[in-house]
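Help! Submission page says 'invalid entity' but I think these are all valid:
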Amino acid sequence: MVHLLSYIVFIPLVAALLVLLTPKVYQNLYRVLTVLGLGLTLVLIIFAVSKFDGSVQGAINSEANLQLVEKTEWFSMSLGSLGKFSVDYFVGTDGLNVGMLLLAGIVLLIGAIASWNIKEKQKAYFGLYLLLSSSILGCFVALDFFLFYLFFEFMLLPMYFLIGIWGGPRKEYAAIKFFLYTLVGSILILIVMIGLYNSVYDPVKTALEAGYEASQVEQVQQLVQDGTIKSGQIVKSFNMIHMADADNYIPGSFLEKSGLAKIFGQPARWIAFLALLIGFAIKLPAVPFHTWLPDAHVEAPTPISVVLAGILLKVGGYGLIRTAFVMFPDSAYHYSWLIGFFGMFAIIYGALNALAQKDLKKLIAYSSVSHMGFVLMGLAAMTVEGISGAIYQMYSHGLISAMLFLIAGVIYDRTHDRMIENYGGLASQMPKYTVFVAIAFFASLGLPGFSGFIAELMVFIGSFKSSAIPAWMPVVATTGLVLGAGYYLWTLQRMFFGKFWVKDKNWVNSLTDLNSREYLMLVPLVILILVFGIYPSLLLDLINNSVESFADHLFQFRK
Amino acid sequence: MPFDYLLILGAFLFCVGLFVVVTRKNAILVLIGIELMLNAANINLIAFSSFDPNALQGQIFSLFIITVAAAEAAVGLSIVVKVYKHFQTADLDKINELKG
Amino acid sequence: MIDLQDIILPKSDPIIYWIIALLAIPFFSFLSTQKFRSKAPHWSTFLLGLNTLIAIYLTTRYWNSDFITVRGHWFKLGETQITYSFLVDRLTLIMSVIVNFISLLVHLFSQEYMRKDKAKPRYFAFLGLFTFSMMGIVLFNDLLFIFIFWELVGLSSYLLIGFWFEKKSASLAANKAFIMNRLGDLGFITGLMILYTQFHSFDLEAIKSLMIYSEIEGGNWVAQFTNNGHEIINTLDGRWLSAAGIALFCGAVGKSAQFPLQVWLPDAMEGPTPVSALIHAATMVAAGVYMLARIFVILDAQALEVVAIVGAITAFMAAIAALSQFDIKKVLAYSTISQLGYMVMAMGIGAYTSGLFHLVTHAFFKAGLFLSAGIIIHQLHKLESKEVMFNAQDMRVMGGLRKHMPKTFFCFLMCALALAGLPGFSGFLSKDAILLDLAVWADIKGGGFYIPEVLAFATVLFTGFYTIRMILLVFFGNFRLPIIMQKNELSGRLKEGNWIMLVPVAILALLSLSPVFGFTLNAEHTWFVEAMPTPIYLVPISYAAKSLVDVTPETFEALHGLVNAVSIGLAIVGIVIAYLAYKPNAKLEQEFVERREPRGFFGQVSFYHWYQDAFYRKAILKFVMLKAQALSWFDKKVIDGIIDGLAKFNVVFAHLIKWFDRYFVDGLVHLTVFTSGRIGQLTRSIQSGNVQAYILASFVFLILLMLYLVF
């Protein structure tokens, strides 16, 4: 399996083509094809993860750290005296994305199963869903900024249609809001990407271009610093790994490490970092860029909510780690207070907002905002514990929020109503469903034994230990835990406990307990949430070395 | 036979052809005129091929033109038939779709 | 220099199999009980019996051996190893016996109590889950794991309080319990954060070992050690040392129902009564005290003061509240809070042994009281019918039960006298030990620290009062229910509970006698106190409290007689006042039935528990909800409004651009088109559409061209 990652990324795309080529007469095959395609992808991902060696050690900005690498030149052109333009097809895994890959595989498959009873425009739906899957997976493994950005943008299009066509009553508003919000973020990212491209060169390719051996990288870097190698021979690069190394910045370039370039009187690197931060914070989403999320979640069909909360939000967090923090560690340290504060703010703000919601899906959406605050705070801490916690939180929240939205979908499927106040005492009518709801709620409010607890604990101890953010931040943020217990238990009490009562008498017969397809989606999630809550080494052993070198990388810039 | 006679015959034939092409209203007659003009050119080619007794390129070339002219006539006639079917007439004065 | 990795090396011991069994059996009960349906009670009781036997066996085997640690690695965070570890010492052993034993008795009792409940498999499963989590707290010696099981105990308490989830009040009480506990747990987590930051471990042994070597330098708390050979110097402000202790104590405040979070416990009485006996009287609420005992040595002077003061306040407030309740379970709940206050206060003043002693004695007599009350409630429920509806927990419908259920009365009385602290009963020994330590502590500290002593002694008086008031109202006088309902036949139908319920109660009543702990009136000479010496503080000297261990025995001796006399005297005074006020046909007893709520300011304050609940509901909960609503409004209107405003601005701007585009940019285009159109008009007339004309024209021009070329 030489091209394992490519298979993983492109199998959904092939499945999408197959769906498009299947005549409409066999439209029941679409969902089978989708599930099979994503099932195969998941198998390959599990194979890739099992091949992933957690003991590999290397700096976060060296390719020695990467595994399952595939790298070929995609296209390049000479720009005369401006050097050479080169884009690689460069994918690979390290500790930072291996967990995300696994998560994406799991959630996408579960989303596909959840799509089973989509009835209208099946061909388009499953085609778009597979396209979305492919671009998400691509986004997680791409290590060339150009490729990353391509996949990143490509997620938007299917998502826009999936919300806009199969969504609820206000689907157009939600879809356009989602699209525009994300696009604004993308533009900021694009600007920084171009800036980085103009400042970073590929030392290996430059060496070959200037007539040196590929192994003489350090010498070439020195020669570039001296100005011996002229700009015409410099091969510029979109390689994210090179972008993380301060030695690969062209002297005098815009985003150079010691650069004097300023925008509005601020160092250009700070501005570039902020642009990336905002770009990905929109995707995360962080307060105050979060308002697309409740709308998108409420209007999106269940499987799309699952994918949206389960994986798409994590692209934001992953992007922050992979680009903003790795490439601008100095600026990250400078802004860590701000990031930590917004993390803490989001935790409490999201929780308080969730407390005031009447719509079950909105409540879950705001709880996502709250939980993503932990990611920001953990990253701002810049300690091994904090970063591990942030990554673990993304992973665990992916599983838990997927389960939460599936649960909201169960009730919506039956009655087409999500208002909490319209139900009461469901526990006596749907006891098994109630058990799963309780599990999901307790997992989400951070009960020990479930994966969310490990993540939140690590974020807390990491941020308290950190010298980058003040100790009061995690202490204040702990109130989020109580508020979390508040809104979940209150919901549980209002909807499930007490005497059985529903607003519309016609619902009584449709409120049946879980069916086997719903079990098929929920049981594996419960098992995974428990397994990762009890045996965190399963993931932590894979990411530990990368996180450590990431933390070291960040640590160098602290004074 | 003096060389000039051949050229005069050619020129005469060409003029007749041109006259037919320009004056006749019927598209088939116009085609016949075009054939005349082509053959006038052939006569010229054959005449000049007397300067090249070994290779006889002019004669070969005129043979080639005759063949092509046959094909061209076939295509032209079929177009005329199509035009007739479409406009219900072969009168070139009435077929003025290109009028600005 | 001391290396962290050396302290937390994995350690193994054959006892691990027993530990696993102790944890696994109740957990298995939780998983499997629901499968047994109607046999579920028997099955889970059998499993618990097995577990109790194991606990007793371990206690007899390991009582006199040194403590045993078992440790393993859980996961790794960078260089830091997160461990799990078990500790088996005398405290663990005795706690595991108490937890399993009382759990077994409650299982037995519930066979009868829950016999008619359809959901009893679920009930017994939850009891299994509770026992499992409680054993986790007891056995683990790792703060992180204690916290994990701490939360799981909270979960099982939530599930059991809300067991009758169709009752709204039950589910609300469950929520309240869980959220109040969580509030305390915020402190616990903060404590974990502080200790982890300083010592890079949650392992209590590691924390203790490194705490010894930590120092106070210029107001900073410095911990110096190596981890895997890397030298680590962690410096925090000295105040964080106290903060760590207080923060961890917050966890105990939640779980052990201390001021200001104690309001959940009275509401928790919504759960089935055996659950109240097990969880909300004997074991779970004592977990806070147990945890304080585990972290006792790392608490500094300031933290200990806070602990002591909070404990004293709680004991006093709850005792006052217990004076005027109507609901028998509420009286018992407030008395539990009050007694827990004693235990916590004991920990705070450094009376480690006395506090634990009181934990043990209280577990037995309070469980006995709750189970006896359970019998009464259960038997009264049997009188209920469609015509006769009443609250079976309300003491206003009771009275004179002594004649109907003499065995229950006898057991109840024994446990109640232990609660009141009369000589001959276990409560006397342990309470006296605490009061003696308190007196010594107050003498050492002096000044305002006499206040806790005053509060604690006043509590003795009130305890005597409410205990006897309860006994008089429940067991003496006339059976009031038939009088209220005007149905005399009800009186004959009230019977004694059956032996399944009586046996556990009788066992607990016997265990409330002081000879169980030794034939002595001096706690010093009981086997318990002799087995469990107070450890010394490990915090840096300048922050450490003055230990009671250092006080000379003579000081204790000097005060002992006085404390004994005062406490017995106060208890008797309380009892006498109660007797005079509530003896059959006394004025208060007569009035009692008709009253809806106590009159007078004092009565109101007592009945509503200092209005604390109302304050929380009206001030804090309302404030949070208002804030939530306001933020939701802010989110929808302001943040989203800005976004929508931006979008609208864009649309308006786009319209402007559209106008500009149509009339200006497009105007230019139109001009070009117009010009070229005119030129086209000029040239089009040449086009006749006649093919022959074109041919002629081209010939003419060809000829002209040739003429031009030739000439």
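Support: the input was valid. A stray whitespace character was the problem, and the output above is from the cleaned input. Chain B touches chain C at residues 18, 21-23, 30, 92-93, 95-100 (CB under 8 Å).
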